[in-house]
Amino acid sequence: MTHHLPDSIKAVVFDLDGTLIDSEADLRAAVNRVFDEIGRRPITRNEVVMMVGDGVPKLVERALEATGGLPDDGTDDVVARFLEFYEGHATDLSQPFPGAQDILRELVAAGARIGLCTNKPEAPAHEILEFFGIAKYFGAVVGGDSLPGIRKPDPRHLAAVLEKLGTDPAHAVMVGDNANDIQTAQALGVPAIAVSFGYPRGPIAALNADVVIDQFDDLWDVLAGLA
């Protein structure tokens, strides 16, 4: 089936964790590997899905708080140990959400420029994109450590992605799964599309997204409606 991109939309920017990729299992495995070393109990899936979305330092901080509190000497060592393990194991258990690879291929075929705006560090983000064969679709990847001190919900994070794509906010949309994604997009005047199958950390309606989709096939009708 041939899809057509509305003339008013030039770029589609995606979040990664909880939007394109179900990465919870690898994030949890990395946390629990480090926690086993430092004598903490393992965290569960239900816990970790409430912790992701704000980058690795915040994930580690939340996991520590849930299992006994923050160490007296801070979190830097635990974060470093997490990254040391995770960056070589970011694709052991993760999988693309159904339809993710197809929608990227279809969007590019229709002429869209595709960007990634993720609070995940850039190195494992690239590792994941390459592993699943979808890196070729992205014209810009900006991670949580790509811009010093700037990450979602700071709209400058999304603005940097659009700058790399050569697209202004008036001709872009953002697709994500949690409040950071929606707030980032709306602060920049970009339509915010939420997926219902990610890690929203609460009721999906509370995100106040412009549109919610239950599957990626729905995105084409949404884009047509935004034109």
Can you give keywords for this protein?
single chain; 227 residues; alpha/beta; Rossmann fold; DNA polymerase, domain 1; 2 domains; 6-stranded parallel sheet; two-stranded antiparallel ribbon; 9 helices
Would you write up a description of this structure?
The structure is a single chain. With 227 residues, the protein is α/β, with parallel strands linked by helices. It has 2 domains: 11-22 and 94-226, 3-Layer(aba) Sandwich (Rossmann fold), CATH 3.40.50; 24-86, Putative phosphatase, domain 2 (DNA polymerase, domain 1). It has 9 helices and 8 strands. It has helices at residues 24-38, 45-48, 56-66, 76-86, 100-109, 122-131, 155-165, 179-187, 219-226, and strands spanning 11-14, 21-22, 95-96, 113-117, 138-142, 172-176, 192-195, 211-213. The strands form 2 sheets. Strands 5-4-1-6-7-8 form a 6-stranded parallel β-sheet, sandwiched between helices. Strand 4, helix 6 and strand 5 form a beta-alpha-beta unit. The mean pLDDT is 96.
Strand order of the largest sheet: 5-4-1-6-7-8
Coarse structural class: alpha/beta
What gross morphology would you assign? elongated
Mean residue pLDDT: 96
Separate helix tally: 9
Q: How many domain units?
A: 2
CATH class of the largest domain, named Alpha Beta
SSE blueprint and pairings:
Elements lengths: L10 E4 L6 E2 L1 H15 L6 H4 L7 H11 L9 H11 L8 E2 L3 H10 L3 E5 L4 H10 L6 E5 L12 H11 L6 E5 L2 H9 L4 E4 L15 E3 L5 H8 L1
Parallel strand pairs: 1-4, 1-6, 4-5, 6-7, 7-8
Antiparallel strand pairs: 2-3
Helix pairs in contact: 1-4, 7-8
